[in-house]
Request: fold
Amino acid sequence: CNKLNEKYPYPDYDTAAPGGIWYALPSEGRCDYPTGAHDCTWSYEHAGHITLQELEAKASWGSDNCCNGQCTGFWDNLYDVGQTQWRVQQAMDVFANKYTQMPRDLSWATCDFGWWKWYSPNDPWARTDPWWRDGNISAGLPDPLLAVDSLMKEKEVVK
Reply:
């Protein structure tokens, strides 16, 4: 895991989710009761799921985020801290309304990864962010439509 507010090892800048935690859950580490051994670092309990369609329905109509003729404003102001917190609350509300027998508020999962034990203070590897371009994070983000178009072309070639 990686606490985004620690800004190390990545991302090393403020994000729209300052209290966020980035988890990496490698399949070889999954087990029923985590011990911390290299092959037993995490587990989960299925509690239910919500869909993007259910979530995006919570927002007013939008014009920039459309799929199959349905447009939503849910993802507007993507890098705004307040909007990100609102999206998290909406996800919690949708889940609570769908699974009324489950508690709405759960304790946050812990992140006890000590990066200072893993990464050397004199790490010779340069930390680079592939999405950061010209002082603007969004300038380097790939265009989703171009990515889909590229995948479609690759798929056509493979046929």
About this structure: The first strand starts at residue 2 and ends at 3. The two ends are 39 Å apart (CA to CA). The chain is about 25% helix and 5% strand. The chain has a mean pLDDT of 76.
